[in-house]
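We both want to read discrete structure tokens more fluently, so let's practise on a single case. Once you have written the record down, we can walk along the chain together.
***
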Amino acid sequence: MITKRQLGLGLLIIAITGIVALLTVDLVGAGAFQGIGPAQRLGLLACGIVALTGATLIPLGDKPA
């Protein structure tokens, strides 16, 4: 069974990977916008919410999720 700590760490890792991927797309220069476009902003916002949710689950310990 998965614990809240494991779920939180998984969500945090997924969110950080998403943020790095979105910023890497900007470095590569894909897309029509200079800088961070509107779709990337929404993606960063979504990843931030997932990261915040994951971070709040980590201190809850070994309780089942």
In short: The chain has a mean pLDDT of 90. Residues 4-58 form one domain.
